[in-house]
């Protein structure tokens, strides 16, 4: 089954729009499959997407959204998964750097920032479902990534300046934290059925850890480990992207 | 009320009538509507309505493979609640259409008398 590019674009936009307004994945796939079936029949008979949905895709998407409820259960799950994910990344990094002291800033800040980021992401996706240019999408995504990184930098700065340690972990505690993070990564990989949550932590933390045992100077260690991390992740994402495009 | 709102209510009743005749799917409903002259109905507009009707339990769906092979297709069936709703719609429609026809009819006569 091969739909016209206009129809495929509309289907993708609809999926994004409904997802970003918090609808259930199952319900979305259900609607999308039915519409694909219809578009397929209609295009066989020479009709265009405008004949079917009218001139305003946005208005049509809203009609669906109005009939569907916000799926709290699903989004609480996503939110919890993201908070756990951020915790796992932060904890594993801290364990490797032997910096497992936490202040209230960090304990409250990280979950709060993650939830804010998730909400921002949903709003952005809703906005992007109405945008036709791909470049605009990339710029907006870059912008919100910058906002998130900015948020974390601000948090770390606040913590360094005003944060008082309220929780401290000893070496046994560190091992437990490390195993906990690893478990979250493995669990997340199974849940999302992808290796991203295994590959990225490995590229991010393994070079740093291995280089610690070399006689290299600390600055040099940092530069090399960051380079390996960055290049490794970029190459991995490049291959994932290529594989996904081939499926289409 | 906007004209599209009125049309939506009528369309819902007509869809119930079509589904009450036996199992059917989206594209077939549009073809049937077209046969009766409903060309003002935008094809896609039936789907949000069908979704609502499903949530109100007026219709049920079953997914089955298409007879000619290929992807799954969603077939609609009417429920008892849907049949009740259809009867209500018929009554209301008879009342409205009789009244509207009478009124328009008299107006035309009035015009002639002048």
From TrEMBL, chain A:
Presence of the UniProt keyword tRNA processing in the record: no
InterPro entries, A to Z: HAAS_TM (IPR012963)
Keywords: Membrane, Transmembrane, Transmembrane helix
Record-given protein name: HAAS transmembrane region domain-containing protein
Any Pfam family: HAAS_TM
Ranges for domain HAAS transmembrane region: 89-201
Keyword Transmembrane helix carried by entry: yes
Transmembrane domains' residue ranges: 75-96, 102-123, 135-157, 169-188, 195-214, 220-239
UniProtKB/TrEMBL annotation, chain B:
Domain Transcription regulator PadR N-terminal positions: 15-88
Highest taxon of the lineage: Bacteria
Pfam family, one: PadR
Name of the molecule in the record: Transcription regulator PadR N-terminal domain-containing protein
Naturally occurring in which organism (per UniProt): Caldibacillus thermoamylovorans
């Amino acid at each position: 089954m091969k739909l016209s590019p206009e129809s495929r674009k509309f289907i993708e936009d609809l999926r994004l729009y409904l997802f970003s307004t918090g609808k259930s994945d199952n319900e979305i796939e259900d609607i999308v499959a039915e519409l694909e079936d219809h578009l397929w029949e209609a295009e066989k008979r020479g009709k265009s997407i405008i004949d079917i949905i009218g001139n305003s895709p946005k208005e049509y998407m809203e009609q669906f959204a109005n009939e569907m409820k916000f799926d709290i259960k699903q989004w609480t799950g996503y939110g919890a998964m993201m908070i756990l994910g951020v915790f796992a990344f932060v904890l594993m990094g801290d364990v490797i750097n032997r910096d497992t002291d936490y202040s209230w800033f960090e304990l409250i800040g990280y979950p709060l920032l993650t939830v804010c980021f998730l909400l921002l992401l949903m709003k952005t996706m809703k906005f992007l479902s109405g945008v036709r240019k791909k470049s605009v999408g990339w710029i907006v995504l870059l912008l919100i990534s910058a906002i998130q990184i900015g948020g974390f930098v601000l948090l770390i700065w606040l913590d360094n300046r005003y944060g008082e340690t309220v929780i401290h972990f000893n070496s046994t505690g560190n091992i437990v934290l490390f195993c906990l993070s690893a478990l979250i990564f493995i669990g997340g990989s199974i849940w999302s059925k992808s290796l991203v949550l295994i590959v990225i932590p490995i590229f991010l933390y393994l070079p740093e850890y291995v280089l610690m045992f070399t006689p290299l100077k600390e600055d040099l260690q940092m530069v090399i480990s960051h380079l390996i991390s960055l290049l490794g992740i970029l190459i991995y994402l490049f291959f994932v992207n290529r594989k996904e495009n081939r499926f289409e | 009320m906007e004209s599209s709102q009125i049309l939506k209510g009528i369309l819902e009743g007509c869809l119930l009538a079509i589904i009450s005749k036996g199992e059917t799917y989206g594209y077939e409903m549009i073809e049937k509507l077209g046969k009766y002259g409903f060309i003002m109905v935008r094809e896609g507009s039936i789907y949000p309505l069908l979704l609502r009707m499903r949530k109100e339990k007026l219709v049920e769906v079953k997914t089955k493979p298409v007879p000619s092979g290929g992807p799954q297709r969603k077939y609609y069936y009417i429920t008892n609640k849907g049949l009740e709703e259809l009867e209500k719609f018929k009554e209301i429609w008879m009342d409205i259409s009789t009244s509207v026809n009478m009124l328009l009819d008299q107006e035309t006569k009035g015009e002639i008398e002048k």
